[in-house]
Write a structure and sequence with these properties.
The protein is of the alpha/beta class. It has 8 helices and 7 strands; from the N terminus they run ααββααβαβαββααβ. The chain has one domain: 3-Layer(aba) Sandwich (Uracil-DNA Glycosylase, subunit E), CATH 3.40.470.10.
Length: 250
């Protein structure tokens, strides 16, 4: 007999439970738990989350933001995507300035932050050693991203934070039934691509990841990140054109 594949979660809430309980990658689970036990000196009073981190945001979102993986002392500590570290601070401030977040800070799961028309997720759901999940670990997480794409029925815009998130999204999009042209759209900060998906269309927007490596060196500035999310906002306001095209912004 052929084993049946597990039934895909039918709601974001049920998907969240599946993700938190996931133990597919022993290396990542061990790392998350080890970091939660050691802690960082500044967070000795915290009870670290130390588990896979689910996506978070508006279930009616038209925009999904895809990152790479939780930070060891950010999301792995707080239990919410892009919360509690420098990358989360940069991203949340931009989302606030562009009308997608209710406040400019993201410090803890109970800090009152609300996302409007936006859902935050990542290619991998566990904090990886060296901030580098292996390709096989990202592949094991891919069904979760596929499920999120299909469970957001109003989805129109995808913002990929970095090259690896861009690639992970395209693979998940293909599995979700999105038409990804060949050759595949290449990552570049400020690039966009339009991807047909049945009767609708997704706009893919690329930006450098808001990591300290990028922000402290000036590779990514707050103004550059704001441009991306203002672009997403204008796309929602105008509707997504059926014409498939790709360009880089000035």
């Amino acid at each position: 007999m052929t084993a049946r594949s597990p039934r895909a979660p039918r709601t974001l809430a049920s998907l969240e439970r599946v993700i938190v309980a996931c133990r597919k990658c022993p290396r990542l689970i061990a790392h998350c738990q080890a970091i939660a036990g050691i802690k960082r000196r500044a967070y000795q009073d915290w009870v670290y989350w130390g588990r896979p981190v689910p996506g978070v945001g508006d279930p009616h979102a038209r925009v999904i933001v895809v990152g790479l993986a939780p930070g060891a002392h950010g999301s792995n500590r707080t239990g919410r995507m892009f919360t509690g570290d420098a990358a989360g601070a940069t991203l949340t401030a931009s989302l606030y300035r562009t009308g997608f977040a209710s406040q400019p800070t993201s410090l803890a799961r109970d800090d009152g932050l609300v996302f409007t028309d936006l859902f935050l997720t990542a290619a991998a759901r566990c904090a990886p050693p060296g901030n580098a999940p292996t390709p096989s670990e990202v592949a094991r997480c891919r069904p979760y991203l596929v499920s999120e794409l299909t469970l957001l029925p109003r989805l129109r815009v995808v913002v990929a934070l970095g090259h690896l998130a861009h690639d992970a999204f395209l693979r998940a999009a293909t599995e979700a039934g999105v038409h990804v042209p060949q050759p595949k759209p290449r990552f570049a900060h400020g690039a966009q691509a339009r991807l047909p998906w049945g009767a609708r269309e997704l706009m893919l927007l690329d930006t450098y990841h808001p990591s300290q490596q990028n922000t402290l060196t000036g590779r990514l500035t707050p103004a550059m990140l704001d441009v991306v999310f203002r672009r997403a906002r204008r796309a929602l306001d105008a509707g997504v054109s059926p014409a498939s095209r790709r360009r880089e912004w000035p």
